[in-house]
Specification:
heterodimer, B: about 190 residues, mainly alpha, 7 helices, about 90% helix, globular
Chain lengths: ~200, ~190
């Protein structure tokens, strides 16, 4: 049971982080559609996203640290999935770079909120984390990201940026929903009393 | 964090992450602006090829290093990887079309794969006696902050001074990483 669960959890998280790996398409999307998207603005947008992750990650880890039942982590996962799933849709509606900066913050919040849930699922699935296991997961994740980046580039080239963002939106919604279901099924410790 | 090798290792990682982080967000724009035959698909292909190359060479390097003389090979790998990565910006400047860029991406994947494999093995060896989870978490946070700063700095440099200046900056930071890796080897030889 746990083998497929592990693979699904890893590929699911990679779906959620695939935005970062579709950065090529994102930068070109900004230049094409958003007025005032200069090199500086694109770099700043990426910097804001990373800064959000850097600032919020310790808090989300602290919040879910002693969560015996997993309920608190589940709530974080819900909110995080919602923010991450909304991001491509919001990109389509962005009018200027200020909008994009705000969306980048939301996206960073989404990813940070999803991380503890995903980590808990992984811990449940493999019981312990060894060096070799981590390497194997990284390999699966990188291969998934490489494939998705290629598919994203192909869609953007053939059908346009809007189609790509809609495709991203659909995949992210499916992946985020799937991650929430997986967590509800395997991540919660239903035998313990609520913390 | 008392040991010097550990500090050098962490600093090398930060420098390489910083150098790479300078170009990361604006790399596609650089390709579209300067390379003949750059389309959305070829830009994504470049990214995909880099990831595939990195993961393949990572496994090859890990197996090679762990076969025998682990520490010596890992230190050599760290230096080799840092040299390859610091050469890449110069190659970007020399490239004129997307075919060359794809080849350079394979080369970059080779460098990063070797560097990551060596770095992980060395850090596991050096950090055994320290509080690994705390140190690892601190290092991850620092790396993210460094990448956030360098992403903005990269955009600023390219916007105000052009891509050429950005590549020189990347090479400079990469060479600092090479110097630190060389220092690690010299220190370990002196210690032995």
């Amino acid at each position: 049971m746990f083998r497929w669960l592990r693979a699904l959890a890893v590929s699911d998280m990679m779906y959620l982080t695939v935005f970062g790996l579709l950065a090529p398409i994102f930068a070109l999307f900004l230049r094409e559609r958003i007025p005032g998207a200069t090199l500086l603005a694109v770099g700043l947008a990426e910097g804001i996203y990373l800064l959000t992750i850097g600032i919020l990650r310790p808090f989300s880890q602290l919040y879910s640290k002693n969560d015996l039942t997993g309920w608190r982590t589940q709530h974080l996962l819900w909110f995080g999935s919602f923010f991450a799933a909304m991001t491509p849709f919001l990109y389509l509606m962005a009018r200027d770079m200020i909008d994009v900066y705000v969306i980048q913050i939301l996206y960073g919040v989404g990813i940070v909120f999803c991380e503890p849930g995903w980590a808990r699922l992984m811990d449940k699935a493999c019981q312990y984390r060894s060096f070799f296991n981590t390497e194997r997961y990284n390999t699966i994740g990188t291969l998934t990201a490489a494939g998705l980046a290629l598919i994203g580039g192909f869609i953007a080239d053939q059908y346009g940026m809007v189609t790509l963002l809609i495709y991203m939106n659909v995949t992210i919604v499916v992946a985020a929903g799937f991650l929430c279901i997986l967590y509800w099924r395997f991540g919660l410790n239903k035998n313990s009393a609520k913390a | 964090m008392k040991s010097n090798p550990l500090k050098i290792l962490l600093a090398t990682d930060l420098l390489i992450a910083g150098a790479y982080g300078l170009i990361l967000p604006i790399f596609p724009l650089f390709l579209m602006d300067t390379m003949a035959g750059a389309t959305l698909f070829t830009v994504a292909l470049a990214q995909s090829i880099f990831l595939l190359s990195k993961i393949n060479f990572h496994w090859i390097a890990t197996n090679y290093i762990e076969h025998q003389q682990v520490i010596n090979r890992a230190r050599g790998g760290l230096l080799t990887g840092a040299i390859i990565i610091s050469l890449v910006p110069a190659l970007y400047l020399l490239a004129v079309d997307m075919t060359l860029i794809l080849l350079i991406q394979i080369f970059l994947g080779l460098g990063l794969g070797i560097l990551q494999a060596s770095w992980k093995i060395l850090s596991h060896e050096d950090i055994k006696k320290t509080d690994w989870p705390t140190l690892q978490a601190n290092h991850q946070h620092t790396t993210i902050f460094v990448m956030a700063m360098t992403a903005t700095l990269g955009g600023f440099t390219a916007y105000n001074y052009g891509y050429c200046a950005l590549m020189y900056l990347m090479t400079g930071i990469g060479l600092l990483g090479v110097l630190l890796s060389a220092m690690l080897i010299i220190k370990s030889k002196a210690k032995n």
